[in-house]
Structure formats: C-alpha cells, structure tokens
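Run folding on both entries below.
>entry_1
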Amino acid sequence: MRLDFEGNRAFSDAELSKTIVTTPSAWARRYLHLPFTVKHCLDRSELPNDRARLIIFYRRRGYPRATVDTAVNVLAPGAVEVKFKINEGPPLILKSFALVGMDSVPEKTRIVRDLPVREGRRFDRFVMDAAADTVRQRLHNNGYPRAEAENHFNVNDSALVAWDTLAVMPGPRTRIGAIKINVSPLPGKKQQIPTRIVSRIMGLDSGALFREYEVIDAQRALYQTEAYQHVSITPDSSADSLITLYANLAEAPMHAARVGAGYGTLDCFRLTGEFTDYNFLTGARRLDFNARVSKIGIGKPLDGAPGMCPAAKKDVFSNRLNYYMGATLRQPLFLGFRSFPTITLYTQRLSEYNAYRRTTAIGGIASEVWRGRTRTPVNLTYSMDLGRTEAQPALFCAVFNLCELGERLRIERTQQLAVLSLGITRDNSNSLLSPTRGSIVRLEGRHSSPAILSNRDLQFNKFVGDASRYISAGGGNVLAFRIRGGSVFGRNVQSATGFIPPQERLYAGGPTTVRGFSQNELGSLIYISRPKYVAFLSTDLLMRPDTVVLQPLDDSSYRRVVPVGGNSLLVANLELRLRSPMLPELLQFTIFTDAGEVWNRGTPEVSSVKLKVTPGIQLTAFSPVGPVRLAVGYNPYQRPKGPIYYEATELADAPLLCVSPLNNIPTHFFYDNPNTPTTPTRITQNTGICPATYLPAKQTSLRSKLTFSFAIGQAF
C-alpha cells in the first residue's frame, strides 16, 4: 500500500525507488480501491536484496558508511507499508583527479574540457564512469577509433577521501583507408543503385581522419533514402594507422504505393494516396506523387452527408472540397554536402476554420534541408504559387478597412505569391508522437516582397517560434510545458497595420493552443448578425434613402463569429500528464492550464491586451494512429466587444452592412417604387469604420463556460 524512505537527503524518493524491486500498488488501487488496477504484492524474500541494492547504490555514489534498515508495518488485513530507514553518513570526498596518457593527442585541451569531475566534491562512481565515456567518445570522433579510458582509484575509508586517475590509451591516430562496399540486391534482381552513388551518399573519403560520428552520419544518410532495408558500416580490427571500412547494404523494393482513409472533426471524411519511386533515374533520387481530398461529406460536389460532420458545419469554408495533388523530387545530396534538396509542383485548395480558403491553381516549392548537426536541421524554402485567398467580407472590412466589393475583389483575385522561409528545428525529445522527456525548439522566418517576385499587394515578414520541454515525473507521469510566440509585419518592421494575407496572420484557440477557446477564436472577433432583416431599426421610420441601420438594443444575439487573428501572438501551456490507474498502457489523464492572446499592434486594442488563462482536464487514449484526445477547457471570459455586420444575401450584390450600436455610417436604400417602400432592391453604405461597440449577451451557466475539443495527437 505504501513505500516510504526515511533519512535520505542526497537522493530523492523517486531515484531510490528505481533501484529496488519492492513497488507500491497503483494510486487508484491504494486510495480508491478500484478493481482491475495495478496491484503489487509484498515479496518478503526481496526485502534483504532491496536493502543490499540501496547500500550498494549509496556506496557507488560516495557514501561508504551508509546503512539501511527495513520495516514492514501492517496497515489493514492484507495491506502493508514498507519503510526503508537510511542513515547516509558523511560523504567520501575526491581529493585529487589526474588524467594521464593524453600527451600524444593534439586536441587534448578540447577533449578534456568540461568533464563532470571536480576535486573537492563527492566521489561518485557514476560521475567517474561518465567522464571516462565522454573522453572515449571524443577520441573516437577525433581520429582514435581504438581509444580506451579507464578509472583507477584508491579510497581511504577512515579518512573519507579518494584519489582517482583516468588512464587513457588513445592508440594510433588513424585515417580511413579503403572503403569496401557490398550491396545485396533483392532475390532475382540486379543491383538497382550503382556503387558510385552509394559512395557519394556516404560522403566518406579515403585518407580523411577517422571520425565515428561521420560513419554514423553516413549510415543514417543511406537509411534516409529508404532504398535499403539493412545498412551497416564497420571498421576492421587491425591496429594500423589506416582503417578499412566495410559497408554492407541490402536493397529494399524501389517502389511503394499507399492509400488511406480517415476522419477528422474539421476535415470530415478524407482520402489519401501516395506512390513513391526510391530510385528515380537510377540516382537514389526519390520521386513522390501525393493526392489528398478532405471535406468529403460536406464539401461540394461530395456533400451528401453533412450530418456526419457536425463541427465542420459551423465552418463557412467547408462547403467545398479541400484537395492536394503534387509531385516531389528529392536529391540524396547536393554539391557534395549532406543536404536534401527537394522540388515540388502542386495544386491545392486549403481552408482554415472560419478564417480563409486558399486555392492554388499551380505552385512550386524548392527547399534545402541541411543537417550539419544531426538534431538541428536547417530548412531553407522558396515557394511561388498562382492562387487566390477568400476570406469573410467582414474580416476585410473590419481589419483592413476594405469594405467595398471592388476593393475586396482586388485583394481576392488570383495573384502571384512568392515566399522565402527559413526554419530551424532542434529536437531532443524521445518520441515523435508522445514525448516523455527532452525538448523541442522550432524557429521560422517568412518573407514575401516584389524582390523575390511576389505581387506588391502581398508583402509581409513573419517570425514564429516555440519551445517545448518534457520532464519525467516518475511512475509514467510527465510534466510538459511550451511557450509560443509570433509576429507579422507588413512591408517593413514599422508597418503594423498594413495588409497581410489572411493565411499568414496568426491565430490561436483550439485543441493545440488555448483549449478554453474554440478553434481560432482567441483574440478579437467580428460578429455576423442573424439573417433577419426585421432585426434592424432605422433612425428614419419613413425609410428615406439616407439613413443609419443598427442592431436592436434588445437583441444581443448573433449568427456566427469571424476569427480576426492578429499580427502578434503569445501562447503558453502547462500540462501534467498522468498515467491512468485503469488501463495505464492505453489511457492518460491530463491536467492543463493554457494562457495566451492574439492581438493587432498599431490599433487601440493594444492597451487592453491581457493574457487569457483557461484551465482544464483531458483524457487521452493511445491508438495506432497516435494519441486521441478529448479536452474540456474552462473559459471564464466574456466574448469581447467587436463590430457586427449584416450580410444582405437576399440582394443580388449581397452587400455587407455595419450594424454596430452607435455607428453613424449613412446607409442608402433603393426601391422599385419609392412611393410604396417595402423590400429594397439595393442597399449601399458609405465607407467608414464600423465601431467595435457590439457586446454579446453574457453567458453565466457552467455549460457555456466549458469548451469541448477532440483531436488526434498531443497538444504539443
């Protein structure tokens, strides 16, 4: 029922519990008495062994006089507490540390730099072994493949002091001699990729200084072509100053095809298809053909099952299919460098929930991925496409003051967009789908201007970065946190209010950012009134041609919201991912707190910017396609004030009318028969700023403050 340690100061309970066999039952078993949860029974024969394990642990960590006693207390029939009473005693101090055998190594200073051993500190065998491993590895990477390093120490138990000598045997300084490549083709087939191409991909040269990490990189580069099912590069065992490398490769099938089907809350039903040639033109080049279709069931012309897509029904841009068709060619190396240039040609339609829809008639992407450091790839990309972006008229009017139909059409017409981007990723996490330790850092900069052949109406500079950290909390629990920030500028850094393409604006809210808000609804909002013309009051009851229209004072309802996004973003997330007491390999509970805000610099709203904090809980189920999450976020905030518009879709030109309270924008009504005005045939409104004076009715019920979201994949 309980495992307890007394007297331990140098090491935590979690560290000590990892060294012994005795383990308490699961939390739900101990406190909630739930059946089918993990139960651990007491094995009395292991208690002496656990006592010995703890004593050995302490002695190796520098406490030679440590003593351990055990006690078993009966808490209830069939339930016990195991207690380990520890007396650590005084530590053993490292009096001197010497490193010998490195006089012949030219890089001695660099190789022994920043070793974890310090004289005057506790004599820790784990630290000594780590120092030996570090020196050995550094020598292997600097021309000494047969280097060895061993610790020789003396201990005076009575004086509690120790002396350690790290003896290094570097061996001869070695260069690469012959490189012998053996390729095994598939049964019944000839070798597909020529040996000279294999040698170029490896990037190892005879006569070069042997470096172990370069051999590992060469092996990784061959695997990354996905043209081989086995790769090994091994040195010979001779002790000469030249070393022979043996590369043994087994070829894999050179063609692959894959089809898939799925469902997403916002994508509805979707289909994917891929075909890959791993040896295009016999140069280990990879050619991929990809096709994707989503919004099936709700998007025209395949809109026969809208009831199966309840979340997508709220998206005004889900009425047409999203698609992607493209071909990508990737080189295994470029100009002798271990980089991965790719060229892509594509056509696509892509939409963002209630924000925009981007249709690209034809586009191209050229990118280069450089992996000078294995875990820090740098991605340089240039893209150019001919396409158009559709956004809700209210967004153009309220954010960019483009209220006239002609102004919006000028921005929404098919234009040439070119973007130059640079992305850097540092991934030290231990898992792609659900990390439990490590960190991930991503930085990206994007630029568009006529200088790189983009349309002059589509200029921007964008910078986005995020950092995540994952810490094991013991027992399969994980503490995770992330911070994300971004900023978008117009033509230059000083341009905070210039036009920015909707697809490049910053959005937040939803299951991967701030879970207390619906998708993209963090920050300023624009409201669309209910489609009832009778809901408007006129200051001129006779409906003369020049009047002002307002939302009725007694009507605070609206039909939908339009996410505005912003040119500045800040999001922070903190999660405690808890292993489920029931089905722990399948389920995970998460307690989270998200904070963030999206705002527009250069506008009056900057003075009222405050981070929105939304706590919540989450249930995660691990599936073959990744973690599937159901999150509930608590949002105590009232929807912000904003402009409200009426879309007069009953008229031929569908004008967008500002109906915010206290607006004074003149509106003109035109009738077939002005003498008997009933329903106008045309409505126009003068140009003006629609004031952000509309405030939706305050929701006070608990249900209205809860935001439910469903997603696949961890939030970060």
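>entry_2
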Amino acid sequence: MKTAVSTKVLIQGLVRSPDREGALAHLDLDRGFAFVGRGAMSFADVIDPTIWVREKLSLSLGGDADSQEPQLRRAIATLRAVHAELMSRPDRERTWISAHVVLFRDSEGMALTAGDCPCYRFRAGVLSRLGRVTSENPAAPPEGSLGSEAQVRLEMVPLNAQPGDCYILSTHPLGEGELSLLARDLASARDVMSLLRTACSGTQESGRVAFAAVTGAHDLMPRTVSDEPAEMGPLELEPIEPLPSARMESRAPSLESAGAFADTAESEPEAARVDPTYPIEGPSRAESLAPEGVPAEGGLCEETPAGETADAAGAPSQEWDARDEARDVAIPPPPSVGAFVERRPWYEWIALWGGGALAIIALALLIRAIMPGIVGAPRPGAQEAASSLGTGGNLDLFSDPPGAAVKIDGVRIPSRTPATDVAVAPGTHHIEMDWGVYGLRRDTVDVAVGGRVSLRPRLLGSVGFRSSDPGRVLDVYVDGGYVGSTPVALDSMVVGRHLVRFGGPGLNSSAQEVEVLQGTRVELIGNAGTLPEPGRVTIRSALLSDTGFESGRGDPVWVDGEMRGVTPLTVGLKPGAHSFRVLRRGFPPQISVLEVKPGGDQFVSAEFGSRSEDPLRFSPPSAISISDPLPVTIGLPEGEWDQSMALWVYAAPPGGSFQARRMTRLDASSKMFAALLPAEVLRNSARQVKLYFKGVGAAGRELYSEIYTIPVKN
C-alpha cells in the first residue's frame, strides 16, 4: 500500500533527546523545522525554558497555511519575542537560552542561530561546521544567546542541500576529538538509516537532531522520527585536495590525515554569493520561507534592544564578520623550529605561579581568622541550623516548583531548593519554604544523629480546559505534553506559569499562558475556530503481472471499517487519520492509514502481486478499563521475516489527534508486542478510544492495521 510518490529531494530525520534537564532536541517534519537548544532555569521557571521556546516555534510555524508571512520572518519574530520576555525579567530571575533553528522545505532551507548550539554538514565524506565559532566561557552564558545581552544577534546561514547530505544539530558544541571520530564513523555508513544513527550517537548528556536529503519514492508525510528511511547507495569519499599554505598552517595535523573537516566556504561556493533577497524555496515558493532583506549566508542579523519595534531582519552587525559563516575547527600550529630562541627554564613559571597562589591562600586564611572578632559571632539559632557536615544530621530539600526560599528554625539558608546535604543539629526542626506569590509551606522534621531526612513538598492548583464549541473536541497540551481532550480538568497542576496549547486534526493551534496559584481553580477556553474543509482521497488498485503493473477496477474499498465502493474511488473525508482496506480475491488485503489534510487531494494505491504482504491483524477487546487497564497485544504476520520490525500503537479520543506509543516485544524470539494505552487518551467524555497499529521495518517497510473503536469503562 503506497502513498503519493515524489521525485523531489526529501528530508528523513532522527532525534536523540538529551538525558538532562535544560536541553532539548526536536524535529517536526510536518512543519518543516528542526530545533536544538539548551538553557539555564531560574527559580521563577516552572518548565524547562527550551520546551517553552520549542512550543512557541511550533505555534508560530504551524499557523495558518494561507498566511502571507514567510516562515523565516515568523521564526525570527518568535526568537525576538522570547528575548524581549527574558530581558523584561528582573536580573535575579533572568536566564539565558541558546537555540539553533533549521527551516527546510524540499532541498533548500535556512539555519538560524542564537548562541553556541552548532550545526554540522556531512557531504561526500567531509564534515564541516556551518556558521561562526563562538568562544567558550563556562562561567558566562554563551555568546549571542537569548537573554544574555541587551541586543539579540541572530546568525542566518542559507542551506542548499544535495542528495546524500547529512546535517547534524547538537545541543552542545563538539570537541575536536569527537568531531574526528564522528567524521570517521559517518564515512563508513552504508545507508541512510545507519548514517542517521551514527550522526545521533554520542554522550547521553547532549541531544542531537540529524536529517538527511534523500530522493526516490518515499512517504511524503513521515509520521514519526523513528520511521526507517529508504536505503541509499554507499557514500563515495572524495580525495582531499591540498590546501594553500596559508590555510594549512591553521589546521591540525590529525584532522588533515583523517580528512574530517573542510571549510564551508569551499564546500558551498554558491552560498557565499547569496543575494540579500535569497529565495529559499526557489522562484515558485520563495515567499513561503525567506523574508525580504535576508542577508547573505553567514550574515548576522543584529536586533534592536528588547521592547523596541524593529524589522525582523535587521541590518548585519559590524561586530560579526560574514567571513565567519563557516569556520573549520582549527588547532594552533606547532611552534617554529627554524631559529634558535633562548628560553627560560620550564620550572621558573611554575615557581612564580605557585608562589603567587600560596600568597593569596595565606591572605584569605588571615582574613578568615580575624573576621569573627570584627563582626561578632553568629547567632545561636544560625549555628544550630547550619552545623558542620558530619556533626549531626543532613537535610535534602526539594520542591515542585523549584526555587523556594528556605528557612530552618527561622534562619534563612543561602541556597534555594533544591538544596542537598544541609547539615543540622540532631533534634526537631521547623522547615519553611516560601515561593512568594505562589504560596508558603511549613513542615516539622525530626533528625537523628548521622541521619538524613528528605522533604519533597508540592504546591498544586487546579485548571479546567474546554472548547469554545462544545460539540467539537480540542487536544490540550501543557508545556508541550499531551494531557487530554476537552473537556478535561487537571486538579494537581504545579503552581507557576504554564504554556497551554489547543489544537486538533486540521486546526490551527492556539496558545495562551496561564498562572496557576495554590488552592485556586482556573478555567481556560480554547478557540475551536472555523470548521476545516474536508480533504479528497482517491483510492486506486493495481495488479503486478509479467508485463508490469496493470490498473485494477472493481476492487471493494473499506474506509474506517465501512464499505464505501470499488476502485477507482474518490471520497471526501474530515481531516485526520483514516484507514483504507482494499480486497482482491487470491491476495491478502492491503491496508494503509493516511493523515488526510484539509482542502487537498491525496492518493492511495493498493498493489497486488506475488510479494503482497499480510497486514497487521488485531482482535479488539469488548472494552478497556481506566481503573484496571490491561495492555493491548498484537502479533506480526506469520510470514514476517524482518526481526528488526518495531511496532507502534496510535490511540485517540473520537475527534482528537492520535498519540503514538512504542510497543514492547514480549521476548527476543516472539512476534508478539504489547503496550498500555495512554491514560490521557482514555479519559474522555465520549467514553471511547480509537486505535490502530503500525510496524516499521528495514528500508522503510511499513505494515498497518485498520482503525478500531473500543468502548472505555471505569
């Protein structure tokens, strides 16, 4: 069962999320953008600031499809708005966010950078970094990051992808050793999937997004980042040409021998001569991505101070040189040995630095010894609450949300929550945590000698969500996570500021921020908007014979389990996922699931032949319980040979969007998979759940089941 075939350059991608807070990697093939970012959370932040930026970008780029506003202008306006909001905070609550956004469509795109999150390109065996290289200072925010300076400076680098190119976005800059190993491993990849997996490998602390430009017959709308792209021929390595002597001096010998890097200015000569009105989408769709006045590749867009109004694509900054658009990771050249230079003994500098350090330490010890006699001894309460580590017990103080001011027996400690290894004297202590306007919490704890006590209080509020049109269902996302469909209530939401997004199949998302207070209920109403136009789907069948494919006629067609006619057939359907089943005597049924877009024409083709594969078959239960849920199970077809096949279950409330969950293989040799349906989907007012299954194998093979509707009980 195949969907439409395209001869354009397509994008296939893979994401590896970081195993740490404050960093995020995201790829949205439907909206055509990739995002990596990292930031620091202030005590006023309830959610990860990178999630906040990701959600705002998704809303901006997923707006009205008929909007005349180019995507690049929308992305720039979103980053400027985030920067303005950060700069409007008090200094004590201000944080920083380093972000890298790539917009792509077909074979062209644009990279937009604020901070030090890098973008690398692997082409013909050569790994290059796109854009400028920023200086590293662990004690300060990354240079150019959002919220770090009065003016936001955005760097824009046009991308001109060629088939076989692989772009890698990382939340953290990679070291020279990591780049050398990555270049070597990428050169040994034999197909697209292994190339993407290699590009996403690395430490768990950093996240990566890798996407490759491929050609051929592919599903035009990939559903998940885990889908296997089609195979691609082996990558042929091009010989490295000798470099001019002036440039050879700036390269490391180890990188030269590996052939790992090349100057982006050399590898993309066409990008160095980009006209200021660079057409991202070509003559036919240039206005869909790039605004007028976009600077040439590598140019910097220096924005006005936060709060002032200015054009989204400002004038290039004089401080940043456009020649920094693509710079190799260079190692300083070895010192010259052509002439004799008198040198001091190696230990002389060590002695000077060591002597200075000892003098500073001695001065600090002297000041520490005389300070108590000058300012007086601390109060007894403070001494008791802050006993030396090891003389009493220890407190570990956590909170949700974090950032609460802490008092122990009326004495305030310097750190806010989370605070660990707080040493106190044995006995009873009164703990007070203060979140300001959000509320106050008091607890009493007993600490034994050498004991450890942990506190994890949560300040909670209540929020209800409903649709402006009671007859229409809206999906609800809070801080980027799906929480259910309208009407729905969350009675245990952490206090603070949250970003709420409403959406649905074929609808433009709307968002609003909500302030949740302790013991207070808030009601939010999502704008359902106008009804989306139905989409048109044409179902065809074909028979593979000795002479090739022959068009089929008269094959019965079921849509969402209902008989609708025979092939060829055109039907009008509401936007959203729909299943299609086509039968022909002597062959297994061909089943596919298609996401129908509003107001468009789409095609589904059922191909029958000697290699026709059996679909996924599911025996639905009579009902699914919310209070005592059981996993749904499904098996691969008997003749399935691919042991790497992965299965996913998609579940949705009636009228809502499907939520994906990966299934678990029961054992290594079994063809049976199982998974629990998301509780957020089961809790809906219709008391029903719709679900279907999808199998993804090597080389992009896909197997589907039909869409089933199952009752839900308590």
